[in-house]
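Protein in question filed below.

…
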Amino acid sequence: MKIMYQIACQKVLRYGELKRSILGITHKVLSSQLKELEESGIVKRVQYSQTPPKVEYSLTPRGKTLMPILEEMCKWGMQYLPDEQRIHSSVN
């Protein structure tokens, strides 16, 4: 969800930008999740032939249809967080 949210907010993100935008995510986790999202037709990966290599990620039309669902799930989760977690989440 965090990966899709970051890409949706920026429209197009390079790998390094995406990694920096998700605190604590490891290279292994980000790479495997991006690959899975790409294989599912949710994320589009474009690789440019240049030095240094440039790869950009964006949501596919199919991926964009998931965003309203993810937003509602996030709202639901925030509504049912215990008070102390809700305060901490709103600070971040």
